[in-house]
UniProtKB/TrEMBL annotation, chain A:
This is Leucine/isoleucine/valine transporter permease subunit. InterPro entries: ABC_transp_permease, LivM-like. One of its GO terms (molecular function) is branched-chain amino acid transmembrane transporter activity. The chain crosses the membrane at residues 21-39, 51-84, 96-117, 123-142, 173-191, 221-246, 258-281, 293-319. It is found in: Cell membrane. It comes from the Bacteria. It is a multi-pass membrane protein. Keywords: Cell membrane, Membrane, Transmembrane, Transmembrane helix.
From TrEMBL, chain B:
Its EC number is 3.6.3.-. It comes from the Bacteria. PROSITE patterns: ABC_TRANSPORTER_2. This is Lipopolysaccharide export system ATP-binding protein LptB. Gene3D superfamilies: P-loop containing nucleotide triphosphate hydrolases. Residues 4-252 form the ABC transporter domain. It comes from Pelagimonas phthalicica. Keywords: ATP-binding, Hydrolase, Nucleotide-binding, Transport. Pfam families: ABC_tran, BCA_ABC_TP_C.
Amino acid sequence: MRVLFRKSYKQDIRLFRDRTQAFWYLLFLCIALAAPLFLDGYFLDELSFVYIYAIAGLGLMILTGFSGQVSFGQAAFVAIGAYAHTILLSRYGVPWILSLPLAALITGLVGLAIGRICGRMHGLYLAIATLSIAIVTERLIGGGGDFTGGHRGLPVPGIDIFGIAIDQSWKTYLLNLALFVGAILMTRNLLRTRSGRALIAIRDSEVSARSLGTNVAFYKAYAFFLSAVFAGLAGGLLAHAFYYITPETFGMGESIRLLLMIVVGGIGTIYGAIFGAFFIVLLPTVLSWVKVLLPGAIATSGGFDSLAFGMILLGFILFEPDGLYGRWVKIHHYFNVFPMYKRRSFQRQKTFLKTERLK
Amino acid sequence: MSWLEVENVSLAFGGLKAVDNLSFSVEPGKVFTIIGPNGAGKSTVFNLICRIYDPLEGDIRFGGESLLGARPHEVINHGIARTFQNIELFEHASLLDNLLIGRFRHGRFSPLSELFFLPGQLRQELEHRRKAEEVIEFLDLEGYRHARVADLPYGVRKKTEMARALVASPEILLLDEPSSGLTTEETDDTAFVIEDIREDLGITVVMIEHDMKLVNKVSDKVLAINEGRFLATGSASEVQDDPDVQAAYLGGEAA
């Protein structure tokens, strides 16, 4: 068992806890950078999807996991980002390098407006409000006529950065990886500074967050803004990955999938968004391997994928509400204290009752 | 010189008069205690000072300036920090993070600097941490720094809430029942802590308290209220000897 000796306040502020942790993260980064050398195009594209979904997931994590506002509307923001980016590129000829941040910013501003309106709502009401935003956005894009391409959709131009065409799997892979790492760092920075702590304060107790000086409505809207910026960024990248976008690509189902993604990954942690993205993108691939082993009648029936997904989700909610990350922490702890592991280590007992809470 | 002044304040919830034409004033550098039976409106007074409720009439002033123009999150900028009767901590964060949130008013909203962690941020974070460590040492919380608040025992949680209010470096600290739910030893400890807050940190304390031993030990001035109305004020023993106060607690006619 490794004991962490703290000798400086900076140790708690730095990105990595100690050298061992820094070593592992850098090793992972090197493997990810070197992946094009040993993986073929199919897997690189799959990993690109993982990175893009993880960016959208990090955005949703900021909103739902950290500021505590449940949103069924994340796919709407992804859609706005994807359409803004595609329209800026193809219709206005904006260079890619400007178009992507612009699209993210436009999405962010839409998010800010929605956050201003929805910030007063809690729980179920907020869930329904954001759900309706997902539906309305899909309809609006579908009814947008020639501007959005309507239900026929829009073709997405290729990526071109300062004259360099990003046209092969390994190139888009590296581009997505870079933005993914950037998104993680930004989320991490948010969490170790004032605004991030304000979001967590609002999630856990609005009344005391307010008594300590947090303008709750402002920071709730800020969480919506950041979440939408991340979603817009993911949308822009997703548009390129699909080559062709239609409003149905970003329907309500996609919103629900994104929310389930962070639940399965482990809500309230950065890892959760990343683990969840791996789960959601790689699950169909894994299922297709499993199907080979199953009798034909089951494997070819229509709802098999949805059924499997639903069962796995149910399993998580019943047996591991902390998600994949929670499971990982337990496994890690098991080996750390081997052979002294107790299940009770992770059982939370209610030491007191919360009554008369001010809302 | 009076400093925090509550003047003819009234508040009603529907037909229930929670606070009825109440006036009192707190002097700097003193421990001011509000006592009263259950439902007397003690916590409501705190919520009025903290702008959670709007008084129907009357005025609340701090250092000569009316607080009624402030929004709830701006009250702390006047130097007023508080704790809650039923602990309102940030449960899923560590004790240290709770204290760092307490430093909220000593920073500015600077999104780009935060998201890119520009060099100024590190300097600020270290400054916040130093202040948090001072309070951790002051309240003997060293061993719990990195523990999740939800896992801490009740007495420590209570202290953590006090610590979170203290890192905001307030001028006046409102403590809502600092000893409720604590053991006798912890209550004794709380008495010393409150004395130290006044003596060493120079922070004025306004507290709501039921434990008369604690009240006698630390209060400079006591105010008794019942059903939102003023009953008596003075030193702890004066107030306890007041016939109206005895009647309010024991019922029946005053002797």
